[in-house]
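ligand=magnesium ion
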Amino acid sequence: MSTLVIVGAQWGDEAKGKIVDVLGSQARIVVRYSGGNNAGHTVIVGQERFTFHLIPSGILHKDTVSILGGGMVICPKGLIEELQRTRSMRSELGAMMISAAAHVVFPYHRLLDQLEEEARGHNKIGTTSRGIGPAYQDKVARIGIRMGELVRPERFETRFREVLTVKNRLLQMFGHPPLEFEALFSEFSGYADQLREFVTDTEPVLQDAIQRGERVLFEGAQGTFLDLDQGTYPFVTSSYPTAGGACIGSGIGPRAIDSVLGVCKAYTTRVGSGPFCTELDNEIGQQIRDQGNEYGTTTGRGRRCGWLDLVALRQSCRINSLSGLVVTRLDVLRNIPELQVCTGYRLNGSVINHLPSDIDDLAAVEPVYETLQGWEEDLQSCRSLEDLPRSTRIYLDFIEHYTKTPTAILSIGPEREETIVLRRDLIWSH
Ligand code: GDP
Ligand code: IMO
Ligand code: MG
C-alpha cells in the first residue's frame, strides 16, 4: 500500500497543482476528492502553462489515471472545455474517469450563487461565482443530480424536470425569470453524450489499485481553513478540503491512507472575504503580491497577502495529521530585510495558540510576532538545502520547530525542476 494525500494547509492556492504534477508521474492514479471549478491548479512545464479547474493535475503523465472523485461537483461545460484545451496543448494524456457519484453543477447553481452573494450585501463571502455552494446545498438536500444520472437519458429527463421546477420557484423568489426546460435539457444532453465514456463507479477502481499495492495520490483542492467544518465559517467553501475529505470524497477508509503532505506557502494568502490576522495592508503586502504575482488563477482577483501564520499552520498539521510539510514559494520572500511569523493570538488580554471557532473572536485576535532575518538571494537556482542562504534555513527550521512537523519538500519556483525533495520517506511508503 502506498497512498498519499496532498492537502492545502492554509487558505488555498498553496501550489498543490505543481506538487501533484511533480509527484503524479510516480503514481498509478491521481484522484481529486473535493470541490469543483472554484479551484485553479497551475502546472508549468517549460514554456507551457496548464490551469486545471476540474481535471486532476496528474493528467499530463500518460501512464497515470486521473479520477474526478465522488466528492466533487462538476460543471460539464467547464470540464469539456478544459479537456479540449488540454488536448490541444498535449496530444498524449493519461486516461480519465469521472465518478458516477459526483454531482452536476447547473446554470441555476451559478445564478443562485450570484443572487445569494448579492443578498448578503456587506457580509459577502466573495465566492468564485461558480455555483459551488448551491450545488452542494442540493446534494445535502438530496435533490442533486449526479453524473451517473446525467448520462442516463430517461432518468436525467425525469429528474431534471422535477428539480428545475423547484429551482425556478427559488429563482423567482429572487426576482429572476425562470429557466426554460427544453433548451437546458438539450444542452446538457449534449454534454452527457460527450462525457458518458468517462463516467463509471470509480471507488472499486481505487480499492483494487490500493489492494494491488499501487501508488495512489489524492489531490486536495482549496485549503484547510476553507473547510466547511474546520475553516473560518462562514467564510469557507461548501466542501471538505481537509485530509478527512479524501476518504469521504473518493470512497476509501482512513486506514487506507499512508501519508499526508500539507502544502503551505512560506507566507499567507487568502482570496475572498473573512478574517486574516496577519494580513499586510501595506507596502510589504504589495511587494509580496508583486514578487509572487499573487493574482487568482480562477478569478484573476488580487490575493490578500500577509506574514506566515504559524498558529494556523500548526492547527492544520493537527487537523490533517500531516506526515510532512511542502513549503512553497520560498523564492517570493526575497529582499524583505525582516520577516515576521505569527506565533500566538492575543485575544481579550490573553495569548492563545489556536483559531477561535467564533468568527467575531477570530476577527478580533491580534497576532504575536517573532522577527526573523530575511535574505536577498534569488533562490530559484538552488537545488539542495545546502544551496539556500543561512537565514532561509533558519526560517525553515523555525517552521519545523514550531509546528513539530518535518519538511518533506521545498519549492523555490513554479517549474518542476525548482523543487527540492528533503524526505523521500515521508512521501511514499514504498
Ligand atoms: P493551487 O491552487 O494550490 O494549485 O495553486 P495555484 O496554481 O492557484 O497558485 C500557485 C501559483 O504559484 C501558480 O501560479 C504556480 O505556477 C506558482 N508556483 C508554484 N510553486 C511556486 C514556487 O515555489 N515559487 C513561485 N514563485 N511560484 C510557484
Ligand atoms: P484552489 O484549489 C483559494 C474561496 C473563495 C471564497 C470561498 C468560497 O485553487 O486552492 P466558493 O466559490 O468555493 O463558494 O468560494 O472560498 N476559494 C478559494 N480560494 N483557492 C481556491 O482553490 C479556492 N476555492 C474557493 O475565494 O473566499
Ligand atoms: Mg489555486
